[in-house]
Design goal:
The chain has three domains: 11-125 and 213-228 and 303-357, Roll (Phage tail proteins - horseshoe like beta roll fold); 130-209, Phage tail protein beta-alpha-beta fold (3-Layer(bab) Sandwich); 234-301, 2-Layer Sandwich (Phage tail proteins - 2 layer sandwich fold). Helices cover 16% and strands 42% of the residues. It is built from six helices and 23 strands. The protein has helices at residues 11-17, 77-82, 127-133, 146-154, 183-193, 284-301, and strands spanning 24-30, 35-36, 45-53, 59-64, 68-69, 74-75, 88-95, 98-114, 118-125, 139-141, 163-166, 177-179, 196-201, 204-209, 218-220, 227-232, 236-244, 251-259, 273-277, 303-310, 320-324, 332-344, 347-357. The strands form five sheets. Strands 1, 2, 3, 4, 7, 8, 9, 15, 16, 20, 21, 22 and 23 form a 13-stranded mixed sheet that branches. Strand 13 (196-201) and strand 14 form a beta hairpin.
Length: 358
């Protein structure tokens, strides 16, 4: 099993590894013992979908279509015992016996449906879903770094992840922080203020520095890229961040430019600007950092698109995908913000959404 966040892959190697992408396969493991739902309990699964996201909880959904005993009018007790709410669930995807673990979470909902047949529909979510439910009002965290606070916020949830990867933030950045939101929203705020990225990939929680990443794989239209679209929306403005020095007497300001495309034409005479007040920007460097963050956030919202390719578990949010074979002005790296894997009777397919162009 590879490292989805770091491994670099060539399509030629994946084609060989997966024997031409001919035999899609999945493994659903439930409980701390990792009971194999498909092979161990012989569950027949339909409509298996996995949605991986930078912003919200990763999810797995599927239906079990052979768990009902029509003669005795009852669901298989062995299956039902494993599908108890809160039970751990891991999912591996791939081809044949070559599988990659893409999801770790807990069983969030189970629905029994009776129509033409009896079906169990299951949804599993990752750690961020329970973090959404944990809301703290007026909690004061007395630490000197954002990373130290983040580490403590994640402590109650360690049953749902195997590892924290944290790039420590500088000492004495903050004296205390007050939380008045959910743990998930607070963790996002810590990442913004600490100039870090917060997201979850399988069973690893990241609080890492922002930097240019290697593409997970290169896809070429007409070969292994089924479809692709890219949209850019006009944005030409400046973002100014205002703060106060630590003594509270002197104002600090920093400005960053937002342009969707470096070759775009200017249609407004003078500066179109947005001014933001930032209480945490108590130095010139922090104000500059905040301005660049906000400018990048605006730019990425003006850049979007999506693509579809054969099922590739190597595609995960938080990494770019390289696109070729389109046009020299369009070929390049695209940051993935959402990836969906779908496995069913019609095969294994991956779709992805992009937000920001590297």
């Amino acid at each position: 099993m590879g490292n989805l966040m770091n491994d670099r892959n060539k399509m030629e190697d994946l084609y060989s590894k997966y024997q031409g992408f001919q035999t899609p396969a999945a493994k659903i493991l439930v409980g701390e013992a990792g009971v194999d739902l498909l092979r161990g309990l012989h569950a027949q699964v339909d409509h298996l979908n996995v949605t991986l996201s930078l912003e919200s909880a990763n999810s797995v959904s599927f239906s079990i279509i052979n768990a009902y005993d029509y003669k005795n009018r009852a669901f298989n007790s062995s299956v039902m015992d494993q599908l108890c709410l809160g039970n751990l669930l891991k999912l591996k995807l791939g081809y044949g016996s070559s599988l990659e673990e893409v999801f770790t979470g807990f069983i969030y909902s189970v629905k029994a449906e009776f129509g033409e047949m009896a079906v169990l529909s299951v949804v599993a979510l990752d750690v961020r879903r329970v973090m959404d439910d944990s809301v703290r009002k007026g909690v004061i965290w007395r630490y000197t770094t954002y990373s130290a606070v983040f580490r403590q916020v994640m402590e109650p949830y360690k049953k749902l992840y195997a590892k924290l990867i944290i790039d420590d933030t500088p000492n004495n950045e903050v004296n205390s922080l007050t939380q008045n939101e959910s743990d998930h929203a607070f963790a996002k705020r810590l990442a913004i203020e600490g100039n870090r990225e917060f997201f979850v990939c399988n069973d690893v929680v990241y609080f890492r520095r922002k930097s240019k990443r290697d593409a997970a794989v290169s896809l070429s239209w007409g070969r292994d890229l089924i479809s692709f679209s890219k949209e850019s929306i006009y944005a030409d403005q400046k973002v100014t961040v205002l703060g106060l020095m630590k003594d509270g007497k002197e104002q600090v300001a920093a400005t960053a430019e937002v342009k969707t495309d470096k070759n775009m034409k200017q249609v407004v005479t003078g500066d179109s600007s947005q001014t933001i007040s930032s209480p945490t920007s108590d130095s010139k460097s922090k104000a500059e950092q905040k301005a660049l963050q906000k400018a990048e956030e605006i730019r990425r919202k003006k850049q979007s698109g999506q693509g579809i390719c054969p099922g590739l578990p190597q595609l995960v949010p938080g990494r770019p995908v390289a696109i070729t074979g389109l046009d020299s002005r369009l070929d390049g790296g695209y940051a993935m913000k959402r990836v969906t894997h779908s496995l069913g009777s019609d095969g294994f397919q991956t779709s992805f959404e992009i937000g920001g162009f590297d």
